[in-house]
Amino acid sequence: NPYHRARAVWLLSQLGQKGIKEVEALLNDANPNIKVTALRALKQANPSGIIDYAQKLVKDTSAAVRREVAIALKDIPLDKSNSLILALTEGYDGKDPWYLNALGIALEGKENDFYPTLLQHYKADDPEKWSETLFDLVWRIHPSNSVGALHKRVNSKILTPKEKERALVALAFITTMEASEAVRQLADTNDAIAGQAQYWLQFRKTNDWRAYLKDWKSPTGQRPGGSPQMLELREKIVHADSGDSERQSAAMELAKSKPGQLHLLHLAANNELPDTLVSQLKDQMLKVEDRYLLPLVTHYFDLKDSTTFDLEDIAELNVNPAKGKVLLYSNCIVCHKVGEVGGELGPILSNIQAKYGKTGILEAIINPDSGIAFGS
Fold first, then answer.
1. Are 367 and 302 in contact (CB under 8 A)?
2. What is the spatial distance between Cα 149 and Cα 145, in angstroms, rounded to a whole number?
3. Among positive and negative, which fits the CA dihedral 87, 91, 93, 94?
């Protein structure tokens, strides 16, 4: 019974040095699931040995095992894990999203330092000539020092529209002023990507780029491209003389296609879509499979039937650490670990202030789904 075997692994790891030695031997087991379980158990029972365990498994034939190695290296400084993570990137086949996400977890907080090493390893001086594998890695970790390269890819005359769109998404997830300026430049062009850049500016103005986009306003009359039929449906939604049933019918028709969904997102971003239509369109819009649009759809249509709060208003409230601690230990530690207490289903919060500022933490609490796009 594989479940009984797994339980035995965890029990052995808690039986002192002799038990740990037995579990270390299981890193050679023929069953990848046992290797994964052994590594997870050893990570807790003997964390000082993680580097040795990683060196043993970093080129394992099982992608599942290598993913677990990547996750185990999350809190290991880059000067000790650099070569191991680089070896793990070589095991990425360009198709496994879980493997890519595991590499992203391994590099959290180390993205900028690792990025030059990544470029040197792949001999990638020209961003337009990056391999698909390299771009996937940069897309996932989106280091702030990649803004110039990503901007060049978006402006490329030789890359496909899909490749350019993905580069724009990576830019939009970099939380620096330089990234926001790059997207602003793209929004001001006549290129087909300008409409997408507009959406990202509208979305980011509500969170990480709020401080950088105070003077930015969506150009009057700016609309996503579309056929005359799309524009006609859009007009029915906003025209004062349209009846409720006519608006609803037009909105549902737009929701059936990506160009139509873009129109609906634009209307929602400009507060031109009535709340009743937002509620009616919610289920259809949340079926969007395009992960580049998913953050916007979630932001404007996944209202969760609950009260919403303005980030700036919350940031101005007085802080009460005592009450915050009570809430933390009453709710958050079920999934999040703080110090030695809590679960590990969600990110560890012990040093969360080193990754996010006050505004970023509040945004994560108010809109916890907004940062999931890359792992979806």
1. no
2. 8
3. negative
For 137, other C-beta atoms within 10 Å of its C-beta total 22
Spell out the SS3 assignment of the chain.
Answer: CHHHHHHHHHHHHCCHHHHHHHHHHHHHCCCHHHHHHHHHHHHHHCHHHHHHHHHHHCCCCCHHHHHHHHHHCCCCCHHHHHHHHHHHHHCCCCCCHHHHHHHHHHCCCCHHHHHHHHHHHCCCCCHHHCCHHHHHHHHHHCCHHHHHHHHHHHCCCCCCHHHHHHHHHHHHCCCCHHHHHHHHHHHCCCCCCHHHHHHHHHHHCCCCCCCCCCCCCCCCCCCCCCCHHHHHHHHHHHCCCCCHHHHHHHHHHHCCCHHHHHHHHHHHHCCCCCHHHHHHHHHHHCCCCCCCCHHHHHHHHCCCCCCCCCHHHHHCCCCCHHHHHHHHHHHHHHCCEECCEECCCCCCCCCHHHHCCHHHHHHHHHCHHHHCHHHC
Q: Which are the contacts of 56, defined by CB distance < 8 A and separation ≥ 6?
A: 27
CA dihedral 86, 88, 93, 95 (to 10 degrees): -110
**Per-residue model confidence as pLDDT tens for the chain (376 residues):** 888 999 999 999 999 999 999 999 999 999 999 999 999 999 999 999 999 999 999 999 999 999 999 999 999 999 999 999 999 999 999 889 999 999 999 999 999 999 999 999 999 889 999 999 999 999 999 999 999 999 999 999 999 999 999 999 999 999 999 999 999 999 888 777 888 888 888 888 878 898 999 888 766 444 455 567 888 888 889 887 888 888 899 999 988 888 888 888 888 877 788 888 888 888 888 887 765 577 778 878 875 544 556 777 787 888 888 888 888 876 787 678 888 777 766 778 888 877 677 777 777 777 665 554 433 3
What pTM did the predictor assign? Answer: 0.62
d(CA 254, CA 250): 6
